Amino acid sequence: MKKLAFVLWAALATVLVACGGAAEPEAVPAVELSLTATDIAYDMNHIEVMAGQTIKLTLHNKGALEHDFSIMEVPHTGEVMAEEAEHGADGHEMTMDPEVHIAAPIGDSRSIEFTPSQPGEYEFFCTVEGHKEAGMVGTLVVTAP
């Protein structure tokens, strides 16, 4: 009987060691998002992702005015990678320095990639004068993985 108990205990210990090792957390898959700007609105005002999930966002400007996507502060890992267009084609000059920013010229698209690292709610908006006040704003919700 003692021998059987020892064999069962040894088998259980082997299974626990095999399953209970210091496993690395699985990487959260990237998400590709498409956001369309018109005059004066985004087609989405709520975006939800997980912390650690890389966001590949493409901003399409279908409006008659210059538009952008900006987040003033958002904790993130790595660099913010942007395919940037210069502001100012319509006289708009940036007077702020957002953590995340991408501008799309009229009738064109630009992309940005970033990885939020902390759960929370972060406001995104268009920095062109009067656009945020007119409702060109939304919320990026970052949830725990």
Summarize the structure.
By secondary structure, this protein is mostly beta strands.
Question: Can you describe what's shown?
Answer:
Residues 1-9 and 12-18 have low confidence and may be disordered. This protein has one domain: Cupredoxins -  blue copper proteins (Immunoglobulin-like). It is mostly beta strands and 145 residues long. The chain has a 5-stranded mixed beta sheet with strand order 2-1-4-8-6, with no helix packed on it. A 3-stranded mixed beta sheet has the order 3-10-9, with no helix packed on it. It is globular. Helices cover 12% and strands 41% of the residues. A hairpin with a 2-residue loop joins strand 1 and strand 2. The protein has 1 helix and 10 strands; from the N terminus they run αββββββββββ.
